[in-house]
């Protein structure tokens, strides 16, 4: 799905819900440059810190121009997955409509830098870089939001006459300055207000009006909130991915207005969120599927336990049903609380969540059982469900906005507890660009970066390393080759997508959306292949020497040297591109788990250079 400024607010609820439902999310970033003169001339024997510094310079110089995410949701225990792919064109340009917008944008110092080699490459691939000047979804980083808030606060403060920028002695203003301070400032302030006008060349003295001053401050804050809501854009998606706060950054009016052309869509979103967060009693009573029984590892507390017993190391209780532990939570905000934040609440909540700030990583209880007055509470009474469904259709627009806000808040609470496993392909540069574009300036040292990126993405798997582990590639095969290899073999698991949310073979490599789709497919199929091999090993059905040699024959370089396929027992008409993978049995391997042995050695590791990887988890 191509997401633009035209459909962003309508698609946003679906994207956030898809993120909440997904166990794995593949991310890809396309940049306007990936090398500079310094990196081209660098030596091969760089330290990890030197490699990071070179990559940091590149990420700080060039821009992200496309972001693709593919959400992966398991549909059933038989190995069927559903993917939803979203592609965003990322542009530093911010469209302005009002004077307040102009003031806001003027305070941001943005630049656009494009590598000539990248420009040539994109042109050869048929990718139009100029689309960044079209109807792109805007974005603000956390740092830009904080900067805008500080600028607004400075504008709210009254001007101190002693803080003028003149050199009194050089401009012969000493006498006037003494008079201004002794006569005007000391005797008339605070009864008088003083402000600069016409770029500071004239000082206008006027009677202070406390009521007018309060209105001015309120107007400045309203303008800031409106601009933040308008321009935050793509960062809302990033906040959902990293378990940050996004609900208060969203103006529900924009969502309800965007969905107004499709009657019932906003109501359906609220109901779907409710059904996901609070499953019905009949769903709770159903036993776990065969695949769910085998998956008792909790990536939150890093222990194996029954889903109903809760997390032992964190003290978090378990319940009977949830996507990742069968845990659900009631809403923590009363109805309409979100709307208040858009109509006079403090702007401090709009700055975004700084690293390690807020409730992320909270080890307290997951349930707030009392003090809530959300309309969701009534859904716990099954006898009222039919009546409430009818009542929802008759909600006023204002009430609907409040319910959308409550649904967003519940999604936020959920993703802050259950962060997905992030999948990328050779993703070191992707992580650098994501951090620099949507979070903050990159830190100076590699160790600092590893700490900060781990706080944002606690669970990372790189498909490049996964493929190397599998001996599928030797290290430099393009992602498209891997995708075609496994897709051509029709390898399990089965992957489906709804119309407009997938690619099939219609995508173009180096488009972020399609690359994220390929990354998700390659991850699932290599992981299942390795899981089948591990299962066979545990059952004493190890791979024979002959099978290992046959796997080597899959590599095109063996075919190129004219190796005789009949020597390996293949039929005379055998062709390397038509043979199914030797281990592609339709064998059930259960649910993929973060702590499965197949991920040993690559869990939370990223590749920063050929034959060089670093760990970004807790144990480095």
UniProtKB/TrEMBL annotation:
Residues 319-335 have a biased composition (Polar residues). Transmembrane segments: none annotated. GO terms for biological process: nuclear-transcribed mRNA poly(A) tail shortening; priRNA 3'-end processing; siRNA 3'-end processing. Residues 313-367 are annotated as: Disordered. It holds the Pfam family CAF1. One of its GO terms (molecular function) is RNA binding. InterPro entries: CAF1_poly(A)_ribonucleases, RNase_CAF1, RNaseH-like_sf, RNaseH_sf. Residues 336-349 have a biased composition (Low complexity). One of its GO terms (cellular component) is nucleus. Belongs to the CAF1 family. This is Ribonuclease H-like domain-containing protein. It comes from Glomerella acutata.
